[in-house]
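Question: does this match?
>
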Amino acid sequence: MNKRGISAIVATVLIILITVAAVAIVWSVIIPLINNSIKGSSVCFDASTSLTIIGGSKTCKTKDNVSITISRSSRDFKLEDIQIQLIKSDGDSISVNAKNLSIKKGLPGINEQRVFIINKTDVGKTTDLNSIQSVKFAPIVITSDGEKKTCDASAGKAVPSCQ
């Protein structure tokens, strides 16, 4: 009886080649996914840590409007817009984009701040703006590959009545 099989050396070489091919395939799929996630996350991190709501008399409300002052530090990123979220006393929220406000002021540049005035024209005539309890914002940025990305919203900041 003549039994023949592949030698141990050939089997070892085949196993190594299959392993290398599998690693190469996984590498070519996983690395681009990780790179894309990191690019978007780093831009959002820069935007979220760079933009802040200035409290005190700079951010306040009346029955007719809400004034929100947003400051930007020296970090460089492409700010496309800012989504402003107004949270009412009943827990509902209203979102408006800074570029769509009826009183246009532009977005804050590096080391600048802007006062955004949101009035009833922006949120609906029947909305009682005096019921706004807090405000948040979500930066909308342009990533390095040119995509528009809405970042996570900031922590809420109380909105007192204007004095």
